[in-house]
C-alpha cells in the first residue's frame, strides 16, 4: 500500500519548512500511512507491528484465493474485486491494452496519483506485503537526500525499512522481515504464477508501446520509473533486486522495439520531406514543407531521448546487477542483452556494451570446469560454448584445456560425448592455413586425404588413450566424421595395399588401432545404436532404417570379399585376427547368395579352419566358434556348406584328441607320457572346449573322455592346469547339452526314458563329486574353476523338477550342511583371506586388478547360491562380516545379495544381519577380555566403531519404505535386546548385563521404526530393566542403555543421574488402557499380545508377550474398557534375574496414554 501526496498548499508549506511531507491517513490507498520509522516510540512500533500482521493476513488470504484450482478460478475471481493495478494484471481477465489505456487516461488526469499506482504495482510485484509512504524531496539538499537513502532492520518490531528515490518522492517501504522466505511472484511455482509472469512481461511491453505516442517523452514518467527501479536494484532483499531488474530489462527491450518503429517513421518522414521539397520551387518554402520538416526533426529527436532512457535504465540496473550473486538475476541481464544485440545492433554492437558480454565470458576456467558439472545438460551446454570459443576466438582456450575437452569423447553421457566428438573432428581434421582440401574426384588424392585424417585420429588415440575402448570413440565421432569411418573401400585398402611411400606406412600399433576402428564402425553401422553404457537402443524412423539397411548391405559386400584376404595376411597376429572375426556377425548373410559370392564363403571357412589348427589362444578359438554358430543357421541357403565344414573340423579335432588320449593311457596309466604329448593333448582339448560352448558335440562323446581325465587326476594327480581346466569346462558343457536335449524332447512330447535320466544323473553326480574333490587341489586356478562350475551346476540341479515333468525331479540336488560349510570356507580363504597378505599389497596395479576380478567372480557365484535359495541364507553371515573392509572391491555384490535375500524372505534376511552383528560383537568382546584392557571402554575402540558403522550401513539398505521393512526392523530390535540382556556376565559389576553395549549397535536401526513401533520396543526394553539396575545404573558403562532409550523416545539425556527417572517418563499404560497387538508365528497362528499394565514384572522371553516381528492391525485403537476393568496379566519370567523381585510402580508415576496411537495394518500375505 502506498500513500498519496498531500495537497499542494500543505506540501509547499512543509517544503519551505524543510520538513518531511507525508500524506494523511485519509489519503492512503488500500491501507494506512506510517510515520518516519526512526521517530517511532516502542509503543507505537508495537502498534505498527500489529497493523502489519493484519495486512499480512489479508494478503495471504488474497494469495490463497488467487491460487485456487482452475475449476473454481472464475468463482474466486468474481469474489476478488480488482482495485489496484497489481490486482488487475495478476488476475489477467482484461485485455492488457485496455488496462494500459485506462492507466494512461488516469495519468493524463492526475499523473501523481497514476504514478503512485504504478509504483505500488512494482512494489507488490516484488511480493512485498508491507506499507509504502511517500514524501516530497524538492526542498532537501542532495546531502540530506543521500542520508535518507537507507535500508535497515528494526530489531524491536521485526520490520525492514527501505527508502527509495522515485522523483518527485522519497518512498519508504516497510515490511516484516520473515516474509522474505515466503517467496515472491517471479519465483513461485504453479500455473497462476506462471501466468502472472507472462502478464507482467506483457504489461511492461504494452505500457511502453502505448505511451510512445503521448506521455513517454514528457520527462516525468520515465524519470520516476527509472529512479524507482534503480533504487530497488540496490536492495539487499532478493525479491526487490530480482523484480526490479526483470522489469527494467523488459522495459529496455520494449524501448528497443519503439526505437525500431521510430527508424521506420524517420525514413518515411524523410521521404515525404524529400518529395515535397522536390515539388517546391528552389529557394521557396511553404506551410506543408515546414510542417513536414518539423515532423522530421521531431522524429529524429525521439531516438535520442529513447537512447537516453535506455542508457539510464542500463546504468541503473544492468551495470549493478549483471554480476549479482543470484543466478536468476544474472540470467535475466545477459539474456536480454542478447536480444538487444540482435534487435538493435546500431546501438548495442559496440565496445560500450560488448565489454559486459566479454566480462561474463572472461572467466574461461569456470566455463571449462562447467563441462564436468553434475547436471549432464549443463555440461553439454558448457561444452557447446567452449567449442564456439575454440573455433571462433583464437587463444581464448589453452591447448591444455582443449586436450581435457577431447577426453569427453569417452564420456558415458552420449550427448556430451557427441559434442566433444564434434569439437575433436573440427579441430583434428581442420587443414592448416593456406592449404586447400584435395578434390574428391581424384582417387589418389582422396586416398591421401583419408590417410592423413585417419593417421591424425589414430595418433590422437595412441597419445591420449585416456580410455581403451575404441567403440566409444567411434560412437562419439559417428555424426561428425563426414563419412570417413564408413568409407569401407578406403579403410580396407589401407590394410590390403602396400604404401607407395615410407611415410604413408602404418606402424604395428597404428594398424591394430585401425583394425579396432573398423570393427567398431561395422558394429555401429549394423546395430545403429550406441554401445553398452551410453543409453538404450535408438528408435529409427522408416527412412533411417532403410538407409541403415542399405549401408549394412554395402558393408557386407565389401567385407565378404576382403575379409578372407585380411585373415590370411594377419593370421599370425592374435589381436588383429580376433577383431576381424567380430565382423561376420554383422553380415547380411543373404548377400552370399544374392550376390553370388559363395566362393568367398569357401575362402572364409578355409581361413578359419587354418586359424583353428594354428592357434591355441582362447579368444581366437571362441571367435571362430561364434562365426561358425552364426553361419550355421538352418534357415539360410548356405547352411549345408557351413555345416559340412564344421563337421569335418570337429572330426579332425576329435580324432587327434582320441589318439592322444589313447596314447596317454597306454603308457603305464599315463605315467610314461612326456610333457610334449600332454601339451598337444591340452591344446586339442582347449579347441574342443571352445566349440562345445556354442555347438552340440554330444554325438562325439567328448564328455566321457574328459571325465576319464578328471578321474585320473583325482586318483593319481600329476596333470597340469592347462589340461584340467579345459577338461572341467568341456565336461560341464557336455552335461548341459545333454540336459538341454532332454528338455527339448520333453517339449516335443517325447519325454526321455528313466534309463536316460538315471544315466544323466549318474554323470552329473560324478562330475559334482569331482568338483568337490578339486576344491582342495593344489593349483589355485584349478580349484577356483572347480568352485565356479560347482556353483553353476548346483543352481541347475536345484531347480530341476519344478517347471518340467516330475521325472526331472530325479536330477534335483541340494547341497548338505557339510558341502555348504566347505564352500563358504573356500570363499573366506580365496576372497577375504588374501586381502591383507604382504604379497597382495605389493603387487602391480594390473595384477591386483586381475586378482580382484577373479575374487569378484568367486564371490558372485556363491552369492547366486544364496539368492536362489540353493544354500542356507544364514551362510551369508560370513560374507556380511567383511562388508566394511571390502566395500570398495565387493560392496556392490554384497549389497545386491542383501536386497535379493530380503526379496525372498524379509525376516530371515534381517536375522542374518543381526546374527552377523552379534558374532562380530562376540569376537570383539573376546579380544577385549583376552587383552584384559579393563581401563579402556568397550565402546570406544576402533573395532566397536566399525561394528557400529556396519550396523548403520545395514540400516541404510532398508530404504525409505518403513512399512515394507516393519517386521524385519522389529525383529532386529527384539533379537538385539534379548542378546544384550542375556549371557554369562564377566564384568565385576554383578548387575550389569553382559552385552549391554550391543544396544548402541542396534540403536542404528531405531530411525527405521515407525512411531507406534518405537513405543512397543520401548515397552519391551522396560521389561528387562530391573529395579536393581535403576538403582545402580551409574557411570559410563550404562551409557549405551540410555542412548538406546533416547533413540526410541526421541530425547537426549546426557546426565547419567536421569537414567533411572527416564524410564518413568514414558511408563506402561494404565490397566484400563491396554494396547493390544497381534503377532504372526511361522505356523500361521495369530496370537494376541498385551503390553504390561501398571505392574511391571519380568517377562518370559519365550512367551507370547515378546516383541517379535509383528503383523499389526491398521486402525487407531482406543481403549473402550471400563476404568475398573482388569488389566491384561503380565507374563512371569521363568528365571528371576539377579535377585530382582516384581515391583508395583506408584500410581502417581504412571502416565495417562489416552493419546491415539496409529497402528498400521498389513495383510498377512504382504508380510
UniProtKB/TrEMBL annotation:
It comes from the Eukaryota. It comes from Vombatus ursinus. GO terms for molecular function: chromatin binding. Component of cohesin complex, a complex required for the cohesion of sister chromatids after DNA replication. The cohesin complex apparently forms a large proteinaceous ring within which sister chromatids can be trapped. At anaphase, the complex is cleaved and dissociates from chromatin, allowing sister chromatids to segregate. Belongs to the SCC3 family. It is found in: Nucleus; Chromosome; Chromosome, Centromere. This is Cohesin subunit SA. Coiled coil: none annotated. InterPro entries: ARM-type_fold, Cohesin_Scc3/SA, HEAT_SCC3-SA, SCD, STAG. SUPFAM superfamilies: ARM repeat. GO terms for cellular component: chromatin; chromosome, centromeric region; cohesin complex; nucleus. Residues 318-419 form the SCD domain. Part of the cohesin complex which is composed of a heterodimer between a SMC1 protein (SMC1A or SMC1B) and SMC3, which are attached via their hinge domain, and RAD21 which link them at their heads, and one STAG protein. It holds the Pfam family SCD. The gene is LOC114041161. Residues 1149-1167 have a biased composition (Acidic residues). Residues 1-49, 1117-1167 are annotated as: Disordered. One of its GO terms (biological process) is cell division. Keywords: Cell cycle, Cell division, Chromosome, Chromosome partition, Nucleus.
Amino acid at each position: 500500500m502506498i500513500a498519496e501526496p498531500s495537497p499542494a498548499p500543505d506540501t509547499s508549506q512543509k517544503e519551505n519548512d524543510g520538513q518531511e511531507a507525508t500524506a494523511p491517513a485519509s489519503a492512503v490507498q488500500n491501507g494506512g500511512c506510517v510515520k518516519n520509522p526512526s521517530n517511532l516510540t516502542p509503543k507505537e512500533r508495537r502498534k505498527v507491528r500489529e497493523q502489519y500482521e493484519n495486512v499480512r493476513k489479508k494478503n495471504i488470504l488474497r494469495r490463497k484465493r488467487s491460487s485456487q484450482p482452475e475449476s473454481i478460478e472464475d468463482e474466486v475471481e468474481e469474489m476478488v474485486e480488482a482495485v489496484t493495478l497489481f490486482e488487475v494484471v495478476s488476475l489477467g481477465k482484461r485485455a492488457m491494452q485496455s488496462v494500459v489505456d485506462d492507466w494512461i487516461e488516469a495519468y493524463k488526469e492526475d499523473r501523481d496519483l497514476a504514478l503512485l499506482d504504478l509504483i505500488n504495482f512494482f512494489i507488490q510485484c516484488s511480493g512485498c506485503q508491507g506499507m509504502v509512504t511517500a514524501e516530497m524531496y524538492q526542498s532537501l539538499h542532495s546531502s540530506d537526500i543521500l542520508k535518507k537513502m537507507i535500508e535497515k532492520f528494526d530489531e524491536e518490531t521485526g520490520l525492514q525499512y527501505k527508502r527509495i528515490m522515485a522523483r518527485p518522492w522519497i518512498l519508504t517501504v516497510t515490511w516484516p522481515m520473515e516474509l522474505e522466505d515466503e517467496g515472491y511472484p517471479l519465483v513461485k511455482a504453479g500455473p497462476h504464477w506462471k501466468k502472472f509472469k507472462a502478464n507482467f512481461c506483457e504489461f511492461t511491453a504494452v505500457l511502453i508501446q502505448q505511451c510512445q505516442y503521448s506521455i513517454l517523452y514528457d520527462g516525468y514518467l520515465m524519470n520516476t520509473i527509472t529512479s524507482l527501479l534503480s533504487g530497488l536494484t540496490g536492495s539487499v532483499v532478493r525479491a526487490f533486486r530480482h523484480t526490479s531488474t526483470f522489469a527494467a530489462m523488459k522495459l529496455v527491450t520494449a524501448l528497443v522495439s519503439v526505437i525500431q518503429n521510430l527508424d521506420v517513421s524517420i525514413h518515411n518522414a524523410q521521404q515525404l520531406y524529400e518529395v515535397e521539397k522536390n515539388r517546391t520551387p528552389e529557394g521557396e518554402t511553404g506551410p506543408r514543407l515546414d510542417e513536414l520538416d518539423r515532423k522530421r526533426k521531431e522524429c529524429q529527436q525521439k531516438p535520442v531521448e529513447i537512447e537516453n532512457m535506455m542508457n539510464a535504465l542500463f546504468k541503473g540496473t544492468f551495470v549493478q546487477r549483471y554480476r549479482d550473486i543470484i543466478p536468476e538475476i544474472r540470467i535475466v541481464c545477459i539474456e536480454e542483452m542478447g536480444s538487444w544485440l540482435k534487435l538493435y545492433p546500431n546501438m548495442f554492437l559496440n565496445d560500450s556494451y560488448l565489454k559486459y558480454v566479454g566480462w561474463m565470458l572472461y572467466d574461461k576456467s569456470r566455463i571449462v570446469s562447467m563441462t564436468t558439472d553434475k547436471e549432464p545438460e549443463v555440461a553439454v551446454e558448457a561444452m557447446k560454448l567452449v567449442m564456439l570459443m575454440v573455433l571462433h576466438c583464437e587463444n581464448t582456450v589453452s591447448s591444455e584445456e582443449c586436450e581435457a575437452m577431447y577426453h569427453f569423447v569417452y564420456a558415458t553421457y552420449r550427448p556430451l560425448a557427441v559434442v566433444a566428438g564434434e569439437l575433436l573432428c573440427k579441430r583434428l581434421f581442420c587443414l592448416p592455413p593456406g592449404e586447400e582440401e584435395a578434390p574428391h574426384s581424384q582417387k589418389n588424392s582422396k586416398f591421401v586425404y583419408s590417410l592423413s585424417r585417419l593417421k591424425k585420429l589414430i595418433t590422437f588415440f595412441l597419445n591420449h588413450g585416456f580410455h581403451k575402448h575404441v567403440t566409444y570413440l567411434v560412437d562419439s565421432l559417428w555424426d561428425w566424421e563426414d563419412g570417413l569411418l564408413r568409407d569401407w573401400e578406403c579403410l580396407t585398402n589401407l590394410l590390403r595395399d602396400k604404401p607407395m611411400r615410407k611415410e604413408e606406412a602404418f606402424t604395428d600399433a597404428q594398424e591394430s588401432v585401425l583394425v579396432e576402428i573398423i570393427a567398431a564402425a561395422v558394429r555401429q553401422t549394423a546395430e545403429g545404436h550406441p554401445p553398452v553404457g551410453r543409453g538404450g537402443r535408438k528408435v529409427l524412423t522408416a527412412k533411417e532404417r532403410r538407409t541403415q539397411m542399405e549401408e549394412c548391405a554395402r558393408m557386407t559386400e565389401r567385407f565378404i570379399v576382403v575379409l578372407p584376404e585380411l585373415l590370411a595376411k594377419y593370421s599370425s597376429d592374435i589381436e588383429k585376427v580376433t577383431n576381424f572375426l567380430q565382423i561376420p556377425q554383422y553380415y547380411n548373410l543373404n548377400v552370399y547368395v544374392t550376390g553370388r559370392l559363395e566362393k568367398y564363403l569357401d575362402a572364409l571357412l578355409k581361413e578359419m579352419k587354418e586359424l583353428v589348427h594354428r592357434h591355441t589362444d582362447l579368444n581366437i578359438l571362441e571367435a571362430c566358434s561364434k562365426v561358425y554358430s552364426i553361419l550355421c543357421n538352418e534357415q539360410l541357403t548356405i547352411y549345408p556348406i557351413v555345416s559340412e565344414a564344421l563337421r569335418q573340423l570337429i572330426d579332425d579335432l576329435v580324432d587327434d584328441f582320441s589318439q592322444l588320449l589313447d596314447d596317454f593311457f597306454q603308457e603305464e596309466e599315463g605315467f610314461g607320457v612326456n610333457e610334449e604329448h600332454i601339451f598337444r593333448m591340452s591344446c586339442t582339448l582347449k579347441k574342443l572346449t571352445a566349440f562345445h560352448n556354442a555347438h552340440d558335440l554330444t554325438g562325439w562323446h567328448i564328455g566321457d573322455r574328459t571325465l576319464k581325465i578328471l578321474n585320473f587326476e583325482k586318483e593319481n594327480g600329476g596333470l597340469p592346469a592347462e589340461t584340467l581346466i579345459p577338461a572341467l569346462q568341456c565336461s560341464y558343457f557336455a552335461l548341459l547339452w545333454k540336459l538341454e536335449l532332454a528338455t527339448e524332447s520333453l517339449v516335443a512330447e517325447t519325454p526321455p526314458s528313466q534309463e536316460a535320466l538315471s544315466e544323466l544323473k549318474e554323470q552329473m553326480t560324478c562330475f559334482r563329486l569331482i568338483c568337490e574333490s578339486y576344491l582342495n587341489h593344489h593349483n589355485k586356478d584349478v580349484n577356483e574353476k572347480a568352485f565356479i562350475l560347482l556353483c553353476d551346476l548346483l543352481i541347475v540341479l536345484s531347480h530341476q523338477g519344478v517347471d518340467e515333468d516330475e521325472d526331472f525331479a530325479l536330477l534335483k540336488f541340494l547341497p548338505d550342511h557339510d558341502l555348504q560349510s566347505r564352500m563358504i570356507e573356500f570363499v573366506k580363504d580365496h576372497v577375504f583371506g588374501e586381502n591383507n597378505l604382504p604379497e597382495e599389497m605389493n603387487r602391480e596395479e594390473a595384477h591386483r586388478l586381475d586378482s580382484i576380478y577373479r575374487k569378484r567372480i568367486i564371490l558372485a557365484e556363491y552369492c547366486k547360491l544364496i539368492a536362489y535359495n540353493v544354500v542356507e541364507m544364514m551362510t551369508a553371515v560370513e560374507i556380511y562380516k567383511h562388508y566394511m573392509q571390502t566395500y570398495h572391491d565387493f560392496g556392490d555384490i554384497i549389497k545386491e545379495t542383501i536386497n535379493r535375500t530380503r526379496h525372498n524372505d524379509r525376516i530371515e534376511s534381517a536375522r542374518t544381519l543381526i546374527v552377523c552383528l552379534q558374532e562380530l560383537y562376540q569376537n570383539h568382546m573376546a579380544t577385549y577380555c583376552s587383552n584384559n584392557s579393563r581401563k579402556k571402554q568397550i565402546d570406544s575402540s576402533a573395532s566397536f566403531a566399525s561394528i557400529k558403522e556396519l550396523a548403520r550401513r545395514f540400516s541404510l539398505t532398508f530404504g525409505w519404505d518403513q512399512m515394507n521393512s516393519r517386521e524385519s526392523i522389529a525383529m532386529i530390535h527384539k533379537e538385539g535386546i534379548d542378546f544384550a540382556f542375556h549371557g554369562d556376565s564377566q564384568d565385576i559389576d554383578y548387575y550389569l548385563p553382559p552385552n549391554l553395549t550391543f544396544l548402541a549397535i542396534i540403536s542404528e536401526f531405531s530411525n527405521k521404526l515407525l512411531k507406534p513401533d518405537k513405543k512397543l520396543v520401548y515397552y519391551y526394553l522396560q521389561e528387562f530393566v530391573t529395579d536393581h539396575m535403576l538403582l545402580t545404573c551409574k557411570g559410563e558403562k550404562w551409557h549405551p542403555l540410555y542412548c538406546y532409550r533416547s533413540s526410541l523416545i526421541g530425547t537426549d539425556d546426557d546426565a547419567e543421574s536421569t537414567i533411572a527417572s527416564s524410564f518413568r517418563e514414558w511408563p506402561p499404560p494404565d490397566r484400563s488402557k491396554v494396547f493390544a497387538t497381534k503377532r504372526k508365528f511361522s505356523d500361521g497362528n495369530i496370537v494376541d499380545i498385551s503390553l504390561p499394565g501398571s505392574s511391571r514384572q519380568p517377562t518370559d522371553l519365550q512367551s507370547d508377550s515378546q516383541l517379535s516381528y509383528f503383523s499389526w492391525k491398521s486402525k487407531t485403537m482406543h481403549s473402550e474398557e471400563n476404568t475398573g476393568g482388569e488389566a491384561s496379566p503380565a507374563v512371569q519370567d521363568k528365571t528371576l534375574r539377579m535377585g530382582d523381585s516384581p515391583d508395583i510402580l506408584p500410581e502417581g508415576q504412571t502416565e495417562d496414554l489416552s493419546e491415539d496411537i496409529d497402528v498400521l495394518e498389513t495383510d498377512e500375505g504382504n508380510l
